[in-house]
Amino acid sequence: MGIDKEERSFREEEVICQHENQAMSQKIFDNVEVLAQELINSFEELKVIVIDGIDGSGKSFLATELASRLNAVHLDLDTFLDREKGGFKDYLRYEELKRTYEKSLGKNTIIIIEGVCVIEVMERLYLKPDVRIYVKRLIAGGMWFDGKFLDLGNNADEVIKIEEERIREFSSMFNDKADTTNDVVLSGLRKEIIRYHFGHLPH
Question: Which pLDDT tens digit goes with each residue over 125-144?
Fold first, then answer.
């Protein structure tokens, strides 16, 4: 696969690369070396790459690997997050993020920005990426793990309700005295991630 097993391969992941130009409108990759080379070959001037995906999908790993191969600056949105607030987009330190971004700009500099709600964060900063990469976590048979989960409902609120019910059922399995009549409420961050990805899944 081009990456040692110890370094973690993309055997259980794939990335979808999207761009407005026909040269690379939407392609699927499972090898970081091939992806890096495709990015180099497809753009005369590549400045900003965003890496999107549900939490735990492998965004940070891919960003680190690509940054190494492209000699790029890697900005992780989590670095600018006030974690104790219980959300994401409304609790990022945008001024600090914008300053860091602007300091990183330069001739022949590529910036990789990754995070769970990265497209909407870029919109708040009035920035438009050259490329959006969406990381998918796969399970046996090549099925998209998080896609299967999101398909549980017709909208984000239905999925949130189903996940809360599953947590309630799981809790009752390990605690005979658990009060399963009480509402289980997902964190604000988890709800935000579910709602975001319903609106920003790759087509």
Answer: 999 999 999 887 765 555 55
- The answer to whether the Cα torsion of 149, 150, 154, 160 is positive or negative is positive
- DSSP letters, 113-137, are EE-TTHHHHHHHTT---SEEEEEEE
One domain for residues 125 and 172: no
The angle that helices 156-174 and 188-200 make with each other, rounded to 10 degrees, is 140
How many Cβ atoms are within 10 Å of 10's Cβ, its own excluded? Answer: 23
**Residue 25 falls inside a structural domain:** yes
pTM above 0.85, yes or no: no
Tally the residues of the chain.
203
For residue 115, which of 64, 61, 52 has the smallest C-alpha distance?
Answer: 52
Residue found under tokens 């391969």? 9
